[in-house]
Amino acid sequence: MEHIISVTVENKFGVLSRVAGLFSGRGFNIESLSVAPTLDPSMSQMTIVTSGDERIIEQIVKQLNKLIDVIKVVDLNETEFVSRETAIIKVHTKDADRAEALRIVDIFRANVIDSTPSTYTIEVSGDPKKIEAIINLLQPLGIKDLVRTGRVAVAREPARPVAVQTKKVARD
Amino acid sequence: MKLTGAEIFIECLKREGVKTLFALPGGVVLKIFDTLHQQKDIEVILTRHEQGAGHMAEGYAKATGKAGVCLVTSGPGMTNVITALADAYMDSVPMVCFSGQVPTSLIGNDAFQEADNIGLSRPCTKYNFLVKDVNDLAATIKEAFYIATTGRPGPVLVDIPKDVSMAKAEFTYPNSVSIRGYNPTYEGNKWQIKQAAEAIMKAKKPILYVGGGVGFSGASQELLELAEMTQIPVDMTLMGLGVFPGEHPLSMGMLGMHGTYEANMAMHYSDLVIAIGARFDDRVTGKVSEFCPHAKVIHVDIDPTSIRKNINVDIPIVGDCKTVLRELNQILRATVNGEQKDLRKPWWDQIHEWQQAHPLTYHQEQDGPIKPQQVVKRLYELTRDRDPIVATDVGQHQMWAAQYFKLAKPNRWLTSGGLGTMGFGFPAAMGAQAAFRNRLVLCIAGDGSIQMNMQEMATAIISKLPVKIIILNNGFHGMVRQWQDLFYEGRYASSDLGTTPDFVKLAEAYGAVGLRVKKVGDLDAVLKEAMATDKPVIVDVPTYPYENCYPMIPAGGCNHEMLLEDPPELKKQVGSEKVTPEDKDTVLTA
Q: Do B304 and A17 make contact, defined as CB atoms within 8 angstroms?
């Protein structure tokens, strides 16, 4: 099953390779990984999308916690969360297609962020299904280039306070 | 006053109480060696190979419980020490390794003897540091020792570029360390401990399964109290040997692939497994799906990742073995009464039956070839009063040592368990001897594995480390040959060593003492002579080449399905191409 794991780490060199090395060395999956500094510049936030059965996910969370540069690990699947992914798509557009491309952009509430006589560069955010959908629609026009960020996610504030379960997995 | 990086390095080591440094110099660490040369507080033991330095640091650490320290140069120095780091990581040995690095301005330029030390060591250390600024050096070394020795211990690497060792900085040594991502749990969860106590009270067929963690935690006394109070039999892992007295009536000896019959049977048929400082390694569990099918499992370990990694656990307790056992004993002391003894009488009857049915066994003919088990057994009986430290390499001789050398106390057993590193024993024994100059330190080795770090004999001579090496010389990579006999129809692919050196002459060439046991009747006399020598000694014991180590659970087999002797078809096969020790001896001296 797919899990999104949010990892707060020290913002220093080599940390990404420790995390990536943990996944490759122990044969865990990484579907996507994104990393950027937090409000506190001494820390970075990683969002890792991974998959595995309950026991594997438990090991992933524990092994991440064991890394000395990891400050906090939250398995977001244990709470409610919102997630987004951004894609930037450069589409080949001949004259006749330009209007069609703009219609698709409109439907998906995407943006055209750059334009040349023969291309549009489109930015779209959403869940992976939405991004798959717009890619499918743009494909017939001719996609020249496609980059995706991988997912970032954040836990929703609980409607009423509940005990956060994550530490249970992490410690005992 | 400002100090150079090299001086800061030495000041830090002194503050950490380091007395011995296992080291080998090279271009980028010359400044450090030059500074070491001008002081007297830290003894430098110059090894012949960086792997030797690493294993010596491990041996020192296992025997003393303190961090072992080694220093190597960049590039090949670093790559050579990797095996020792990986070994220490698998076996949770506290160790700090310092490596030299090319000057910071050259890092990444493919400079002479440059290697990515941090990248190389990352998967085989608990943590590693590259010190880019001499002002960070002292604090980094403090953190390195703290990480290596706390929580689940392990190796830590500190990579010091040449310019950092030469630059100057004000020296202040921090009093404490605080790392926000590193807070090992020492206190066990009280509710869980109470659950464990209740389970222990109720169990009809409980078994204690204890490992190296008990030794690192210094919890042997607490374990003894628990076992005696509750009268629960104790199975030890390979790493755990010595944490519980081997001759104690409650001791079942070692469990696992070559464990005793009663240890494995008791595991399989128990209704409660109490795992303490052990990690359910595949050499212990055998086939995971049929491991302890009737048992509830209590697992005490300081490393949360050990718990539920290989098998499911009913009562997990993350914490330090000593702290948790103290608390557990306190609860049990108030509740244990005579009832448990009656409750468990059938269990003990069963265990005694197993013990009598299949004790460890071998057959030594009066004038036949020397059996390796006989050598270990006599070595044990002749030296036990001197409370020796015993190191081993990896293979058949290691398993026989584990079976027949019944250690009474922790910190006496130096063996490579997790990584299974041949060549570990001799340098590890030297590391322990460097810590305890007056103790008897034995190294039980095979003729294959001793050759993997033989060069350290020069170090043993120069640094006066009178380790006694006993080579069980069967002319084979014995464990490989055993597997080939059992699973590859006796095809000895690259396991027959062919010509091995004359170990007696080899010892003498280094300036050590070489002795050979020619027949079983001479065994005691030669061993006694070796033990009475104050120099390093090699005792070469040509043994019966086709002896196999039993009991044995074939890899992936089930714990109660042990092979107890050579299968009949194998006996026939061996008889047809039997080589006597005399033949081997002729080969040796030819």
A: no
